[in-house]
Amino acid sequence: MVIKEAKFLMSNTKVEQCPAPTMPEYAFIGRSNVGKSSLINMLTEQKGLAKTSAQPGKTQLINHFLINDSWYLVDLPGYGYAKVSKGAREDWRKMINYYFQNRENLACVFVLIDSRHEPLKQDLDFINYLGNLGVPFVLVFTKADKQSSVKTDSTIAAYKRKLRETWDELPHIFVTSSEKRVGREELLNFIEEVNGQ
Ligand code: GTP
Ligand code: MG
């Protein structure tokens, strides 16, 4: 798929204030700093479209981007940032939970996972939570440029082993590097396919 146009629409904390749910929507989530905003910029080929930062916790709201006037990309705030207060973490949990349970045009969630790390409880818990909600999702292993493909493969294999303990069917898996533009075609083709369904 070719991205002809990508524009920022709005930031919200409330699903009711999000753009009308008339087009399919793809949401990016994962631990703080995993590379959600960078991946949106890589896919749309617009460096500053989603705000990125080396400091975790940059994205705080539900951010909608309109692509080719026909579908939405959504940048969500990450989880797992240690410096966040208990209250703020609870607010995040409520906002995200409400979003996943009520956003009727949600076509698929991209759960981003840092390809450098062995399976983390926070990520596994989040995947299991989505699976139990019945929300369609895929796994996206990020920052593949940071280590050898052997290491990335071993991280993925470890996640698969863990997930098989709970689930019969495994989600679709992508490997990306926003730095090296790895995985762009694969993700865009996937979106095109889901849009066409
Ligand atoms: P929050 O909004 O804070 O939850 O973070 P985020 O998940 O949106 O991460 P963001 O895209 O802001 O990236 C975090 C840091 O990781 C930045 O310093 C990015 O430059 C870096 N980064 C993101 N993706 C990649 C990648 O594919 N390769 C490398 N080497 N660095 C990356
Ligand atoms: Mg971000």
TrEMBL record:
Membrane-crossing residue ranges in chain numbering: none
Q: Does the keyword Phosphoprotein apply?
A: no
> What CDD domains is this protein classified in?
YihA_EngB
**Residue span(s) of domain EngB-type G:** 22-197
InterPro entries documented for this protein:
G_ENGB_dom, GTP-bd, GTP-bd_ribosome_bio_YsxC, P-loop_NTPase, Small_GTP-bd
Q: Tell me the GO BP annotations in alphabetical order.
A: division septum assembly
- Coiled coil spans: none
**Cofactor names:** Mg(2+)
- Output one GO MF annotation: GTP binding
Keywords of the record, alphabetical order, are: Cell cycle, Cell division, GTP-binding, Magnesium, Metal-binding, Nucleotide-binding, Septation
One of its Pfam families is MMR_HSR1
Q: Does the keyword Cell division apply?
A: yes
Role played: Necessary for normal cell division and for the maintenance of normal septation.
Report the sequence similarity comment from the record: Belongs to the TRAFAC class TrmE-Era-EngA-EngB-Septin-like GTPase superfamily. EngB GTPase family.
Tell me the PANTHER family matching this sequence.
Answer: ENGB-TYPE G DOMAIN-CONTAINING PROTEIN (PTHR11649:SF13), MSS1/TRME-RELATED GTP-BINDING PROTEIN (PTHR11649)
Q: Which HAMAP family match?
A: GTPase_EngB (MF_00321)
Which protein is depicted?
A: Probable GTP-binding protein EngB
